[in-house]
Every structure is written in C-alpha cells, then in structure tokens.
Amino acid sequence: MDKQRIAILQSQLETSWDGILVVAPDKTIILTNDRFHRMWRITPQIAALQDDAVQIRTILDQLIDPDAFLARVQYLTEHPEETSLEYLSLKDGRTFERHSSPLYDPDNVFLGRIWYFRDVTQTKDMEEAMLKLKKFESVGVLAGGIAHDFNNILTAVLGNIQLSLFHVETNNEAASLLQDARKAAQQAQALTNQLLTLSRNNTPIKQETRIDDIIKESCKSLEENSNIHCTLKIADALTSVDCDSKQIGEAIQHLLDNARQAMPDGGTVRISAENVFHPKNSKLPPGDFVSVTISDHGYGIAAKNLDRIFDPYFTTKTLGKDQGTGLGLAMVHSIVNKHGGFIQVESEKGEGTSFHILLPAGNNR
User: Residue 80, Cα to own-chain centre: how many angstroms?
Assistant: First the structure.
C-alpha cells in the first residue's frame, strides 16, 4: 500500500465519529483510534501500556452489565462469520451503539473482528422524550373524549346523594352508606378533574400572579390539616409570573400532598422561590424564570423509578387512604409544561425528595 493511501486511511480512522477497535482472532487488540479512547475514558497513560487486559477492565468497570458484554464477545468469537448490533448502557447514563463485523483480507482470509462504538445517548433521550410526549397526548385524547360527560354524570349522582341525605335520619344505617357513596363519587370527580387538566384543550388562563402568595396559601392549608410544618425561603422582590393561578395552585398543592404522604409521622417541608436566568438548552429557551423548589425528608424515590414518575398511570403508592391513581404527577408535569416551564426531580431512597420547577417570569418585571 502506497504512502498516500495509508495517510488517507489513517486520517479516516482518527477523524471518525465512531470509536474503532480491531481485534485479532485470538482477541488481542490490533488497533484503536483516539475516539475509542475518549469514549471509554482510557487515559493516554493506560493506552501507552498497550496492555489489553487493563483496557478491557477499564471498559468493563463502566458498564452496567459487564457479564452480558463478555458473553456477547464470546459468542461472536465462536461464530466469526456473524455481524452484531446492540446497545450498551453505562453507569454514568450514557448509551453506546456497538456494531461488530468480521474482517477479511482480499483473499478472504479471516483477520479478526472490527468493532464500532457510537455514543447515541442524546438520540435515545430524544426518543424517550417523544415516547413520553405520545403518552401524554394519548391521555389528553382520552380526557377530552370522556371527562366532561363523566363529570356531568357525577354531578348528578352527587346531587341526588345529597338530596337523599336530607330525607334520612342521621343515625340511620342508610345515611352512613350514602355518605360513603358521596365520598367515592367525590374521589371519582377529583380523578376526572385531573384528566381534564391533562387534556390538550385545557389551556391555562394566564394573568400576572405572585407565586409566593400561592405558595403561602398552599402551606397554610397543609399545616392546618396535617402534622407537617413548612419553612419558606422567598427571595426579596420575587418576580411575578403569568400563569393560571388555579392550575399552578393545584400543582403546588399536589407536590405538598406528596411530601405529606412521604412523611406519615410528620416533618418539615422546605420551600424556596427565587429569580433566575436560565440559559438555552434542549428543554427551555433562554430567559428569566422563577424557580420554586419543594423538598421533604421522607421515603424518597428509588432510582429505577425516577424516569417514570411523571408518566400517566405510574404510581408506587399502596392501596389505602392515600392510594394513588398515577395521574397526580402527570397532571403537575402537564400544568408546568403548558405554562412554558420545566419540572425535574432529585431523590434518593430513604433520603427525601426535591421537586424543582421553573416558570417563565411575567412581562411586568
């Protein structure tokens, strides 16, 4: 091979967006490119050792399932003619696409195997975000189709139950049964209201609002009806927000109720609000926002559930007084999104939970 062709191939190797690894039939490493080292965070010192075992161990230490990785490598070693495409999940949250194919010379002599690694984390995140959006849209279609009619039926049911109670003695057994029926109907009505909030047609009616007033009112209600105490840290000259005060109030009240349920023996909910400037990212445009954080020191959320808590119908609550419908946090997420904001959660099992909300600042700052 002439020098020009070698230079071209070397340039292609080192400018590739893929991490490239070539191994011999005996699984020894023949060649790697710089992208491969950077993707797998193999330092120049480790690469300079040219010790295959050290490099493989560095890779395995980063994988969530190293055993599956090794099993696949072993299978392809035993079936050298096969190609392979799979995804690798790393402990730091990244996802790699791994493609492998056999390598032959012009005389069809097997030379080993070439592996291509591509970081597809952002693509996978976008796919998951689109899937979540479709779930919300599906719930919105359902809500728009049945919630109004169902709510009208429940209103009639509740009205007749209330009228029936007027004609029944308080100590009558039927009165107790009617009160239970009224309570169940009210719970069903609350559920339809959540579905209506998720409906795509439930556009917020915005007006300039002091969100600290909403927070204080919600905290007052929580403290009067539970063994929870709220501590507030509200920034001076907090900016107003253009919002539907009823919807934002429902969202904050639900997060406070979640905190109460996470601390059945009582405790403190910490709430802060401040003005922030948020730079542009994939979730939000750049601009001025009001940041609200609601933190408890309750049960916390398992790491495996953090990516699902805003999904419609997902709940970890057990049956009982505070049984979950799986729509509460989906409703909160929907309200914040419809206001052009963003919500995220931080939690650790047994260490409590913090919800962070960003809402666009009002025009009259």
Answer: 40
